[in-house]
Write a structure and sequence with these properties.
The protein is α+β, with helices and mostly antiparallel strands. It is built from 8 helices and 17 strands. The strands form 4 sheets. Strands 3-4-13-10-15-7-6-5 form an 8-stranded mixed sheet. A hairpin with a 5-residue loop joins strand 11 and strand 12. Helix 3 packs across helix 6. The chain is globular and about 60 Å long.
């Protein structure tokens, strides 16, 4: 990997490049066209059990759309800080908008994540029943000024829809792999707490120590995450032995990982793998994680098919939305501060 010659990593921050078999590449075409559904399902289940991460190829999302989404992401973050701050996430009661570096802290042992981001979710009108009922995390998105960014909203809305479709396809595979009906997850994600996050990581130089990383070590909070990486790299994941494995970008693939709620559903059978980001490339890094999480009111508890006779669930049942809120409360500084009075949502 090309990098800044002046950086120096502290002990434990150096990942190693593993053979791709450690983070498998799974071709989804056999499931999508029906030619070999069983092979795809078996490969996905093995990856979820053994790694918790996998790449997906032939996923059906147009490469041109991914490229356009990255271009709009770069254009947004290149704006002056004063313009981005108008969209600060603290102004939104439903966790939408821009956040600057160190606003999020995914690992409480760190000083904060060295990244800036922009959060989008299902864009609900103000007269939607869930919005009228003030249901947490439900409502309209925050959007940049269309005169400054005319292509931003249509691009993000199209990308969001494509990611939701891919998320549903993967859940159909998971259901069959867990000895459930193919549509078992459908009514758990028909109003999902899905979130598209745009991220920008500045390059790190000098002495890089564990208290300040691009993104601290953590597992994701929900069901599954579908990540588009740019060519820069920097993602590392922790294997069962505690070693940090590099997960470099592979053209025309997404990398997918299991979140806490899927681990709970499967009683720990599917791994919610810890991961982190260190941008030692000497370049700006951009990524597009899409978090496909259950409906707010979904009760997440161990599936019978994941419990051996007499086995006790490892996790207490949780309400999906309440769990997600609790993780935002723990990791975003603005949610710990006093409310921002007098600012329109």
């Amino acid at each position: 990997m090309a990098g800044d010659p002046d950086f120096h990593l502290a002990r434990g921050l150096e990942g190693h490049f593993a053979a791709f078999t450690e983070v498998p590449v799974i071709d989804l075409s056999g499931f999508r066209n029906g030619s070999d559904r069983a092979a795809v399902i078996d490969a996905l289940v093995s990856a979820c059990v053994e790694v918790g991460f996998f790449y997906v190829a032939n996923h059906g999302v147009p490469s041109t759309l991914v490229e356009k989404t990255f271009a709009e992401t770069k254009r947004f973050f290149a704006q002056p800080e004063s313009i981005k701050q108008r969209l600060h996430i603290r102004h939104s009661p439903i966790h939408r908008g821009y956040f600057p570096a160190f606003e999020e802290n995914t690992n409480p042992e760190l000083t904060g994540d060295l990244k800036e981001g922009f959060d989008l979710a299902r864009d609900l009108p103000v007269d939607h029943p869930d919005v009228l009922a003030s249901k947490p995390l439900h409502g309209p998105n925050v959007w940049p000024d269309p005169e400054l960014s005319p292509d931003f909203r249509p691009t993000m809305e199209r990308y969001f829809a494509e990611m939701a479709g891919l998320g549903r396809l993967l859940l159909r595979c998971f259901a069959l792999g867990l000895s459930l009906p193919e549509d078992w997850f459908e009514d758990k994600v028909d109003a999902p707490l899905a979130q598209l996050r745009l991220l920008h990581y500045p390059p790190q130089a000098g002495f890089i120590e564990e208290r300040t990383l691009g993104c601290g070590a953590h597992s994701d909070y929900g069901c599954l995450t579908i990540l588009a990486q740019d060519e820069v790299g920097g993602l590392q994941l922790q294997n069962a032995a505690g070693n940090w494995i590099e997960a470099p970008p592979i053209p025309h693939t997404f990398i997918v990982n299991i979140g806490d709620q899927m681990a709970r559903w499967t009683n720990g059978r599917f791994a919610a793998t810890r991961h982190r980001v260190i941008n030692r490339s000497g370049r700006e890094r951009y990524s597009l994680p899409f978090f496909f999480d259950p409906n707010y009111d979904t009760l997440v508890e161990a599936l019978p098919s994941c419990l051996a006779p007499g086995e006790v669930p490892r996790y207490a049942p949780v309400l999906a939305g309440e769990y997600l809120q609790s993780r935002y409360d723990a990791t975003f500084q603005y949610r710990k501060d006093a409310p921002d009075e007098g600012v329109p949502a």
